[in-house]
Amino acid sequence: MQSLIASAPAVGAHALQTGPTDAELFEYVFGGGNTLLALSFVVNIALAGLTILGIVYLGRSLTDPRSKAIATALLLISVVSISSYTGLTSGLTLSVIEMPAGHPAAGATTAGESGVLVMWGRYLTWTFSTPFILIALGLIAGSNWTKILTTCAFTIAMCVTGLAAALTTSSLVLRWWWFVLSSTFFLVIVYVILVDWTAEAERTGTSDLFRTLKLLTVVGWFGYPILWALGVEGIAILDVAITSWGYSILDVITKYVVTFLALSYIVDEPESITGGSDYGATLPGSRVSDD
After folding, report:
1. 106 and 12 Cβ atoms separated by less than 8 Å
2. The CATH homologous superfamily of the domain defined by 19-274
3. Stated pTM of the model
4. CA distance 162 to 224
5. For position 33, what pLDDT does the model report?
6. H or E stretch including 96?
């Protein structure tokens, strides 16, 4: 029994050391043969950093609590992104996994190991950043915290089940089942944005801004499952570098472009943001909605 207990740490250490190390994955990405893949990470680090600086500069004069809350949510989107893309760049959140039998990429090799490169760190980005996107959109629309937190819960479920789809190696059917679950959670979020929050934005007077933001967000977010299905995680029509750039471009649109459009609107603190009778109103005598 003692020998079994003593060997347990060694077994665990061996399990953690299987596959390429962080250094080997870093060398694989930045060693010269995968420039396109490397740039898809580095460009987002630069854009996230510039966005953080832009938010700090443009938001320095905000005084209204609701405006500050929106700006803070927008800031945290890029804070999460720069951290997550740094993890991808360092190789920390990259892995090589073998696809199940029947997958188009089954039997492939990457960095001298059997399997394909999986950028699971992207799912960390989406899990922690998309709730802040939804918080900002919900506040702009004038929604209440019940709906905002509900969409946040569904987006976390969407990202976690998407991660499960990417990492499942036991069965091709189960990979696609996780994908279906993730897509179902996604459609709930789309419904809230397109139906509930659109109506609320009409009432609060932010419909012009919200119409632009919802189109960029919803259309962009539909691109993620499409890329997953076409990329190496799905039917492998697109290679890893092209898939990564697709994700990166969608991140640029749904995060940084959306951030600057929203911030440029709230920085002057229009009455539609600082006043009204719906949730988030902060003018004296206004009523907070508890729908």
Report:
1. no
2. Rhodopsin 7-helix transmembrane proteins (1.20.1070.10)
3. 0.87
4. 10
5. 81
6. strand 95-97
